[in-house]
Amino acid sequence: MAYSDKVIDHYENPRNVGKLDDNSNSVGTGMVGAPACGDVMRLQIQVDDEGIIQDAKFKTYGCGSAIASSSLLTEWVKGKSLTEAAEIKNTEIAEELALPPVKIHCSVLAEDAIKAAVKDLRDKRGE
Amino acid sequence: MKLPVYLDYSASTPVDPRVAKEMMDCLTMDGNFGNPASRSHVYGWKAEEAVESARRQVADLINADPREIVWTSGATESDNLAIKGVAHFNAKKGKHIITSKIEHKAVLDTCRQLEREGFEVTYLEPDSDGMITAAQVAEAIREDTTIVSLMHVNNEIGVIYDIAAIGEVCRERKVFFHVDAAQSAGKIEIDMAAMKVDLMSFSAHKIYGPKGMGALYVSRKPRVRLEAQMHGGGHERGFRSGTLPTHQIVGMGEAFRLAKEEMAKDHQHCLDLRNRLWEGVKDMEQVHVNGSFDQRVSTNINISFAYVEGESLLMSLRDLAVSSGSACTSASLEPSYVLRALGVNDEMAHSSIRFSVGRFTTEEDIDYVIAKVRTAVDKLRELSPLWDMYKDGVDLSKIEWAAH
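ok -> structure tokens follow
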């Protein structure tokens, strides 16, 4: 199938690949998807005392569109507040990457991942 | 080296130039273009001669009588004609059919259609190596079973079934035995005089012949009777009507003649390259061969690269033409039904790639492929949270995943 140039760019040069310390109180982790479905995303965010996202890292097992969706998301969330980050919609990701209809679920997964990471962080902080 | 490197010979082979030459001689005014069924002039007689010579060439490869070869449009049509033909003709005797879970769709979908018509089908389960035994067949045969249909070589994982032993069981129990040999003809010896097989399907384009051409072997002794699927004109002794495509038939004949002549050479060539490929990747961590390694055709190797998803792997391997076991381009994200039937777990099934080599594959091709695959797998594992977890000693089967 044909991928958009943006998907290929993120796939060839994924941004912010890596892992943050899950035990830190300033790190939130969202792990979504399942190996059975062919997609697993792990998205992590690190926030400062003001609740602004300073760093984001991801690792994704999945197709090119899934990798690109999570890579793009890590770029977008940096500098955002938790509330702003949790408001990112899958449609914005799908539009930016020009995902075809069969790949929309990859952007949904990315949205789920950031929401899960924000929730994890808030739970940790007892918010 | 031609890019992308073609390692999908199980899907289709290029036509051998020697075959193409023979075919081109049967098309234009200067060539052998007549209708083989025309009885009233030399154009027809010459075409008929070419068709009958090709029939002998196909029969020779499998040690059969040329009168046992029926031309079809390919293995799919042959499978339909064999299974529906026997099932319908013998419906008064019984309505039970035996096949396996890992047959080609041409057999599985034909069986599904017969189920809709009121037939009952038993789907044998392969073991984790992909094997199905004669004992399993013996156990499944009932009073009302009329036909057993199993493939000789599996198209995805390349494993070879012991059709000689299964044939003995079927003959003893007076059940017809159909074998789809699309993936085995020209690759392993087939001796119809020795084996108790009643019907066998062949395809031309899997062994350097043209697409759109196949044949069905229909045994004369014992005689197999079939209900025809295609009517009109009574060609092929009524088994399959329709004007015979001389150029296609001549192409299949020449392809089968070459296959017989060069089988030992082709076999060694493919085996060396296939093994070279496996030697080049097997030292990587968590790399597994799907299907029995020993009971396997020389042209195929199906490998799972654990913790790497198949579609993204293929994206990295754009300079290779291979087949993924995972049908991820569909919305269903279903991994291969063949691998699933073997009990291969999901992340392994999603990460499988079928490499199939052939007559025109070179050592240079294989070395290029090895380098590309190693780089791509390493890169994607760096990106994979599952690889991290594996490295941290996490048992992935113990995690409760949220299926989506």
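DSSP finds twelve helices and 15 strands in chain B.
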